[in-house]
Amino acid sequence: MPKAIIVGSGVAGIASAIRMAVKGYDVAVFEANGYPGGKLTEISVNGFRFDAGPSLFTMPQYVDELFRLAGKNPDDYFQYEKLDEICKYFYEDGLTLTAQADLNEFAKEIEEKTNSSAQEIKKFLSKSQTIYDVTHRVFLERSIHKIKSFLHWDTLKSVFRFGKIDAFRTQGKANNLFFKDQRIAQLFNRYATYNGSNPYQAPATLNVIPHFEYHFGAFFPKKGMHSITLSLIQLAKDLGVKFHFNSKVTEIVYDKAKVAGIKTGGTFISAALVISNLDIWFTYRNLLKKLSPPTKLLSQERSSSALIFYWGMKGNYPELGLHNIIFAEDYKAEFDAIWRAKTIYHDPTIYINISAKHVKTDAPDGHENWFVMINVPANNSQDWDSLILSAKQNIIAKISRILNKDINGNILCEEILDPRSIEMKTGSYQGSLYGNSSNNQFSAFMRHSNFSTQIKGLYFCGGSVHPGGGIPLALLSAKIIDQEIKNAE
Q: What local confidence, expressed as pLDDT, does residue 153 receive?
């Protein structure tokens, strides 16, 4: 039985392990941390439980697919529910909106409360669906680094419809022209942050992202986001995958342009196949030191990072839901601060996730667990301690102003994650959450391939390579590797 080694146990690494086990490989996963999941892990503090990283669950079919591929019933491992309410939005002028999963209800509320019409919303989301129809098979579900991937009829149809994806305008320009009410343009501009990009630089092609939420739906795992990791780990173990934690890989070994295995703890372990789930920058710089790196690719602009406060909160806040956004008053100035000045804007857009709204045991009775996040630049040696202190004061003041109640005294406990600790804990270069940014129309073509062109049997998965960051795309990177290995057999 040939051996496959996975470097890293992020969600893409676990998915790759499952797929290789189904193929008949003897699979071993080596993880530097003492726990699995990468960013998709959890934090517990004083009786409060927090999902540490991703908090929005879309495209659950990509998770279900792994169980079915292994001949298992997904419900035996993992349960989730479709959300009736996607997100609550708060603006400084007093406007509040609740994005219902029912598109007609959401469009109706926008028409009643803003200068934009219900028809605008429906037309915009129809355009979002068109972009998805044109791009998903070509750019998301196949390698774009091999000519044969384009030799399909559906690919050719997509090429002829390329103009439909709006690649030559920025998202900000397209949306500001589309919506009469600029607050609604701001609402849809925020989707650029789903892959760590700037809506005032990134192509309007990113308007595909709302389609995932408003067409396929937004979901929530019944035991929290970390249960995605736990359920997939259990599936992998049931398939015979062996996990080695606290086992940092120090080198990917190859011989005569063919992968040979890895080194960990000074020991060489042979393998016919190696898949790296480590950030592609660290894969080359730390594990493939003797290999000539793709310097131009590795020097691309990184995605944004995040500053997250995990707050155990006294009291209940009925005005907030599971997902909440409190917008900056000047959105463009916020992104200018992040991308040009490489600093934190004094009036940031704040995302608050409260899983205790659905999982009551995530906080003690009469309390809530607040995951409070703002977008920040990747780490370039800024004075983070000073920036964090100032940001915390601004965040507390802004939330208190919007909710019309002083929250400062209700923060009972706190943990903080910033770009430095994100890099340290997850191996994400500079703390960037999604690898490279998508701040130009060619970004989709500039991500690293899922396979090595120099070493046979070496593959790459996760958010820093094609097709990109976020749970659905990370899972698709594992699927693309599966297809590439099948094609090579």
A: 46
